[in-house]
Amino acid sequence: MLESTLETAQRDDTATRIIDAAERLFIRDGTEATSLRAVTREAGVNVAAIHYYFGSRDELLRSVLDRIIKPLNVRRLALLNQSLDAHHGRPLSVHEILRAFLLPDLELIETLRDRGVEIAHFAARSYAAPSPALKPLIEEQFSEWSTRFMDELARALPRVDREELAFRFRCIIGVIVRLLGAATPRGVAGGLDTTEILPTLERLVAFIAPGLSAPKPTRPAPPRSRARIIKE
Amino acid sequence: MLESTLETAQRDDTATRIIDAAERLFIRDGTEATSLRAVTREAGVNVAAIHYYFGSRDELLRSVLDRIIKPLNVRRLALLNQSLDAHHGRPLSVHEILRAFLLPDLELIETLRDRGVEIAHFAARSYAAPSPALKPLIEEQFSEWSTRFMDELARALPRVDREELAFRFRCIIGVIVRLLGAATPRGVAGGLDTTEILPTLERLVAFIAPGLSAPKPTRPAPPRSRARIIKE
DNA sequence: GTCTATAACGGGATAGAC
DNA sequence: GTCTATCCCGTTATAGAC
Prior knowledge:
The structure is a homodimer. Chain A has helices at about 1-5, 15-30, 35-45, 45-55, 55-85, 95-110, 115-130, 135-155, 160-180, 195-215, 225-230. With about 230 residues, chain A is mainly alpha-helical.
């Protein structure tokens, strides 16, 4: 599944060569630092070819990111549906939902190794600081699966206030983006062999799940406490 | 404390005008999209003045970011030390440590409102996708306070494996960066009035603390489970 | 479909007068 | 310290030959 879209396609037409080269450079040097000229050099094609096939630089950028992110999200939903099938539609546990949510990113890093790490960094940058050209794409793709996960989490945690859940869901996005951004060839977020993604998955779930299920916080600290904290 | 460095300085010398203008534009349009010429227009000074006072574009960028981040980290450590004093040096609770850790960012947003939100976005971008010029600065400042907090967390949670703690600490950084990046004028991470930062603080602590204190995950799921999850 | 050549522009940096 | 003028570079995009 991942292979079909993430590895270099077998077809060797010009458009594919361009998008492969652009991906390599966007990933390695960052989107803003990569010029079309660099892409054409890397792809061994001409400057005009990019405009012929993609129309503009922004459109090429969108194509590259789309090819990376889409299969991840497809996989997320597939895992979720698969777990639901195994449960015959009954509510899943928080742990199971989180596994479906997190596993695709770990798989990406494991499958492609060094390249996976760089792709992860690229994805993290695109999420955390999307250029104006990427923002609509990111938000569209995000909304496709985030509501499904939110709904499933709400089913798993009926006692947690829906708005509180949404707040925590946003925090989890932060964890995941950080995970991608801090991935190293020798481990996810440091110090762990990437060949072992399942232990990492369990570490993440063990960290996130308790907070997700936690009761709503009690009233904020009493005023005197605030004064003590804030004032010098 | 925050005011002295974050608000526009009273002095109106050229260097200050430049750095103020650069901050406004870096924040509003992003660092890569802001040219020195735009800065000079905004500051009402000449192109050469920037090179005279800062030497290069990268140096100006570093000065701007430094002025934003440094007081936040100073405040983090001040709050931590203050709590330690109140406890006469005895170990703090996880909740107290997290409050010292998170409060400065919320204060920033509350104090400066719309401008605070934009600064928060800028800080988040700088953390999540630092340009080569910013990376050393970020890492230096980060290491200054992160070890202090790690040590304090280790004291609060002697039963949690140190390496597991480090892993979770990195996840928290993700939450905080996300918090900054997703801040809106009407609320932190959506739907909450920013005038009320203490409830937000408690929500964050309530979400993070349980995961920090959680026991190490049990052995990863048995092999057949992996096969079931990974295969189509 | 693919290429060369070039247009049209904006960038950072600097020399040198004041 | 401050300004003007300029250098030199790389950028996206396109026109037009093949």
